[in-house]
């Protein structure tokens, strides 16, 4: 299977399946002498870890990461960094009844059409379990970016219920199980998802990821624009179906005078912008403003409600997907979106360093 590697100078390759012995990632291109230990990576994996509330899958995985190579005496060596995360709570028997059936909305049929074989145990390689590897890579990317670049993500909509942006408080994201910055919206999400879960259904979500402290000048036009790389990164996350930068689709009804981010000179003698409809990117290059990306995660396809489908023998049938599934998989996509933002920015930082001598 090709296409398991992401990035140019900072790049990572993930491996493993949902119900295999382990999953892992090999990170290449990380500069030497950066301080790095498992303790630098584990908090981000803990944020993505399943089973932390009734609104996510109850699969109990500690997601403990172990560094196998690329670090010596607490510092990176400049060689590939290999990480492993063991699978400890896979229950393959949950999938025995549907091993011959294609789950609507899943990659079962397309993997079978492409490879002639599929791992039905939790989706195998197509499972969102793979995203733990991205989160681990993202933790290393943050080391390259340094503390001056702050990356944070939030859930801004679940199903038909959106947050009130006037209530936005980043600190609230760590106080509720939804990673949402609006305390009032968290109450609405809770009631809504309880009903969704009891009905054996699922809901989609909209995630916003913001990077602050990105300097002007990062990005590689024409075909490796910062926004095109971010769009590719976010679209590669499981269940993501749409990506927008800045105002995104909201720019369509605006006039040019409203959409343009007017400029003035700041007190520091540098140009400043009076708005950020561009999402911190112009011509594929960062402007120095916040880089803002949003992505839509579809409703979880594994649901308890019977759905019509076909099996591998071409027979029409029905399917009920039992087991432990997220009623809203978009909740745990927040740390994944942050990680992919970090990986893209780390890559762009390293690539920018080759552009100018000063």
Question: What key attributes describe this structure?
Answer:
358 residues, globular, 5-stranded antiparallel beta sheet, alpha+beta, 7 helices, 23% helix, 23% strand, 18 strands
Describe the structure.
Strand 12 (263-265) and strand 13 (271-273) form a beta hairpin. With 358 residues, the chain is an alpha+beta fold. The two termini are 41 Å apart. It contains 7 helices and 18 strands. Helix 1 (38-48) packs across helix 7 and helix 3 (131-145) crosses helix 7. Helices cover 23% and strands 23% of the residues. The strands form 6 sheets. The chain has a 5-stranded antiparallel beta sheet with strand order 1-2-3-7-4. It has a 5-stranded antiparallel beta sheet with strand order 9-8-10-16-11. The protein has helices at 38-48, 108-115, 131-145, 183-198, 226-235, 256-259, 333-352, and strands at 5-7, 11-16, 22-28, 65-69, 71-72, 75-76, 81-86, 150-158, 161-162, 205-212, 240-245, 263-265, 271-273, 281-282, 285-286, 291-297, 307-310, 316-319. The model has no long low-confidence stretch (mean pLDDT 92).
């Amino acid at each position: 299977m090709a296409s398991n590697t992401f990035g140019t100078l900072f790049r990572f390759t993930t491996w493993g399946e949902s119900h295999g012995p382990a999953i892992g990632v090999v990170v290449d291109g990380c500069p030497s002498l950066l301080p790095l230990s498992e303790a630098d990576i584990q908090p981000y994996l803990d944020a993505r870890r399943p089973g932390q509330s009734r609104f996510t899958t109850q699969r109990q995985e500690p997601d403990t990461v172990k560094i196998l190579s690329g670090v010596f005496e607490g510092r990176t060596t400049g060689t590939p960094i290999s990480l492993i995360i063991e699978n400890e709570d896979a229950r393959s028997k949950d999938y025995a009844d549907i091993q011959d059936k294609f789950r609507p909305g899943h990659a079962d049929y397309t993997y079978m059409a492409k490879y002639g074989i599929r791992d039905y145990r939790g989706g195998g390689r197509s499972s969102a379990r793979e995203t733990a590897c991205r989160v681990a890579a993202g933790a290393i990317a943050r080391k390259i970016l340094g503390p001056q670049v702050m990356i944070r993500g939030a859930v801004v909509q679940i199903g038909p219920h959106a947050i009130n942006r006037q209530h936005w408080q980043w600190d609230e994201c760590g106080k509720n199980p939804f990673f949402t910055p609006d305390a009032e919206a968290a109450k609405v999400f809770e009631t809504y998802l309880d009903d969704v879960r009891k009905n054996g259904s699922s809901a989609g979500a909209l995630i916003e990821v913001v990077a602050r402290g990105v300097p002007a000048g990062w990005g590689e036009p024409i075909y490796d624009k910062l926004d095109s790389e971010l769009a590719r990164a976010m679209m590669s996350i499981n269940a993501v179906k749409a990506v927008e930068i800045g105002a995104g689709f909201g720019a369509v009804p605006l006039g040019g005078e409203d959409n343009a981010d007017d400029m003035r000179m700041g007190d520091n003698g540098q140009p400043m912008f009076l708005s950020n409809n561009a999402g911190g990117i112009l011509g594929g290059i960062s402007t120095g403003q916040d880089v803002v990306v949003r992505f839509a995660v579809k409703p979880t396809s594994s649901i308890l409600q019977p759905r019509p489908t076909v099996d591998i023998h071409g027979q029409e049938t029905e399917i009920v997907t039992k087991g432990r599934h997220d009623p809203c998989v978009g909740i745990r996509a927040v740390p994944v979106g942050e990680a992919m933002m970090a990986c893209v920015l780390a890559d762009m930082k390293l690539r920018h360093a080759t552009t100018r001598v000063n």
